[in-house]
Write a structure and sequence with these properties.
Helices cover 27% and strands 28% of the residues. By secondary structure, the chain is an alpha+beta fold. The relative contact order is 0.11.
Length: 251
């Protein structure tokens, strides 16, 4: 980058992995640099062309990476003025890309107790994902490892898809696998988020933990190839029996 970028936030180099989307890698690298800023560091980013040259990608790919950060409210883009880090920026959810096969394999378990399926109104936190639906089907399951309870899962599935699900399949396959391999749903996107929280009393009772014990709460949103949300998983993991680990390739 030339001298005109000296007043902009300085960015270390990044070795790109061609196995992953370039915009995603660049967006995550910029995210890390922004969150690692110290007080007094510049808030302006280099111009798009200089950023693209820095990362060795096209301007169009660079714009896609910046759009991701803008959607997460990490940056604000002003026409003719440039792109700036938001002063009130805080940590945002980290998105990890992988294959559906990876999701299925990590959710699989040999010891799953299906607690039932029943029609319910979409929970308030998920209602916006089912805008034209008054009710969905809720599937409830307990998962064990070595005889000990590790998680409690609720899946809220649109009724036209839920009607095709065999409960026996859910005792042996994760919901993602049932949707894809048993029903033939073309899965377009899986979005997962995770956070620590305190469970409600009934959840603590199901997990066999003292009230007030923290759990890892994960939400998984599955969209079909047309972009429609067909399933939302709400999963509570026992904090003392679950570990989250991510492996990255560095080259």
């Amino acid at each position: 980058m030339d001298d005109s970028t000296e007043l902009a936030l300085r960015l270390p180099p990044l070795a790109l992995n061609r196995k992953l989307p370039l915009w995603y890698q660049v967006a995550q690298h910029l995210r890390a640099c922004i969150l690692a800023r110290r007080q007094g560091d510049p808030t302006r980013l280099p111009i798009e062309e200089d950023l693209a040259a820095h990362y060795g990608i096209s301007v169009m790919t660079m714009r896609q990476a910046l759009r991701e950060l803008e959607d997460d409210e990490l940056i604000t883009r002003h026409r003719r003025r440039g792109t700036f880090v938001n002063e009130s920026v805080s940590s945002r959810p980290l998105r990890l890309l992988g294959s559906v096969d990876a999701v299925v394999s990590q959710q699989a378990s040999d010891d799953v107790q299906v607690l039932g399926a029943d029609p319910v109104a979409p929970p308030a936190e998920f209602a916006s994902y089912f805008p034209d639906t008054s009710d969905v089907t809720r599937f409830r399951r307990l998962r064990r490892e070595n005889g000990e309870i590790t998680s409690y899962a609720e899946n809220f599935v649109v009724n036209d898809v839920a009607s095709k699900i065999d409960l026996e399949d859910l005792a042996h396959l994760p919901m993602t696998g049932v949707l894809r391999d048993r029903i033939g749903v073309r899965i377009g996107l899986v979005e997962d988020t995770a956070e620590a929280k305190l469970p409600a009393p009934d959840i603590a009772d199901l997990l066999d933990i003292p009230l007030g014990s923290p759990v890892l709460y994960c939400v998984g949103i599955i969209r079909d190839a047309a972009g429609r949300v067909i399933d939302i998983a709400s999963i509570h993991y026992r904090g003392d029996r679950f570990k989250f680990a991510v492996t990255f390739e560095t080259e």
